Amino acid sequence: MRLWVEDNGIGIASENHNRIFGGFERLHAEETYLGTGIGLAILRRALERMRGQTNVESDLVTGSRFWLELPAPAEF
User: Fold this and answer.
1) What pLDDT score was predicted for residue 3?
2) Cα(19)–Cα(45) distance, rounded to whole angstroms?
3) Which pLDDT band, with edges at 50, 70 and 90, does 48 fall under?
4) CA gap 32, 18 in Å, rounded
5) Domain of 16?
6) Which residues contact 39 (CB under 8 A, 6 or more apart)?
7) SS3 for 64?
8) What tens digit of pLDDT does each residue of 52-71 get?
9) Average pLDDT taken over every residue of the chain
């Protein structure tokens, strides 16, 4: 099952989709948008440790759709 989070912000160009999940990776100057550039990197690392994954669908017109996915729990 996937959880989706959407916004209608400025969007992310396709060539930068993987960059945003790198630690301390920023696409804009701090004066333009606040943040450290580490939040999505932490999210991806945490999900990978739980055998999950995350990614983004985005363009510069409609904003971004982030998804995160965890495997189904094992039955006991």
Assistant:
1) 93
2) 14
3) very high
4) 21
5) 2-69
6) none
7) strand
8) 999 999 988 888 899 999 98
9) 82
- Residue 75: phi, psi to the nearest 5? -80, 145
Contact 10, 60 (CB under 8 A): yes
Tally of domains in the chain = 1
Segment 35-49 shows an average pLDDT of 85
Asked if 36 and 48 touch (Cβ cutoff 8 Å), the reply is no
- The answer to whether residues 74 and 7 touch, using CB atoms and an 8 Å cutoff, is no
Residues in CB range of 60: below 8 A, 6 or more apart: 10, 11, 12, 13
Whether residue 29 lies inside any domain: the answer is: yes
The token duo for 38 is 């580490």
Closest CA to 8 of 67, 65, 68: 65
Which CATH number is 11's domain given?
3.30.565.10
Task: Locate 9 and state its tokens.
Answer: 């912000």
